[in-house]
# Entry
Amino acid sequence: MKAMNILVMGAGAVGSAVGGFLGRGGHRVSLVGRDPHMAAIRERGLRIEGIWGEHLIRGLRVFTSVQEVPREHFDLVLVTTKSYDTGDAAREILPLLLEDSLVISLQNGLGNVETISQIVGDQRAVGGRLIFGIEVPEAGRVEITVYADKVMLGSPSHKVDFGRLEAIAAAFTGAGIPTQATMEIGQFIWGKVFYNCCLNPLSALLEVTYGELSEHSQTRQIMTSVMEEIFAVAGAKGVSLAWRSPLEYQEVLFGRLIPDTYAHHASMLQDVMRGNRTEIDALNGAIAKMGRETGIPTPVNLMLTQLIEVKEQIGKGRVLETPGGQPNRPSAGTA
# Structure
């Protein structure tokens, strides 16, 4: 596949890592993110470290707003913003899209690709499932900390040519990001929701790694209850899942996914400690909302949602108490 012109919207941990590898792979990459991270990349290049090796990537174009981006044809736009910013991001990029441009959501939670589809059209919207851990220990540097599975790309509406998705997946893989196209992207997005809903709020509330959560019978039982509620809600909504029962998913979560991402702290923990809004509304909160709509009880997902909302408020207080208002933890992401 020829080199692509790619725009990354929301170049924090995930967007910087994915965009950086694609730039290293020979594609023309523009990052839209916040200073001081963008300023550091502009001045010194993007340094990627961790389990995928050490790389210094130069030549990335960096911007702090869409308004600064040249009005040119982008083959791909990667949306890596927080879920609550998806609609704004899609509207901002709309003037940059041509008919054959594709917009790929590489985000956490439910509803992102649907929101993008409503704004840019089904024929341009692609869902993505990304399940590896990335941190930003300092401006201009990202670290790949854990890896659970390859990136999956697919068109929920099946209105994007599958051969093109396969070519994009091959380009991602060639750049160092293992990726595969699928006709069942909904199953993978829901699978990531299972993973995030079980792990993120508990990691944020208890301030521990994913691996530590699996070591205690109490947290394992909470996670089991979370997945049982999600299965019930998905069944009521007519969602096709990759597993036949909660027990089958437990074997995957406890037997493979958590061991593969044992040392990772949830990005939700970083958000609450920095006083930032979390994505809980697109995760456990979305499950609780669907439960209300379908008459399915979701007490555990609802309680985790409420506890995270309180933790957000506590985190804001901590940031206010920090001298100079500077957060004292690095940002992180698992999209």
Observations:
- The CA atoms of residues 214 and 220 lie 6 Å apart.
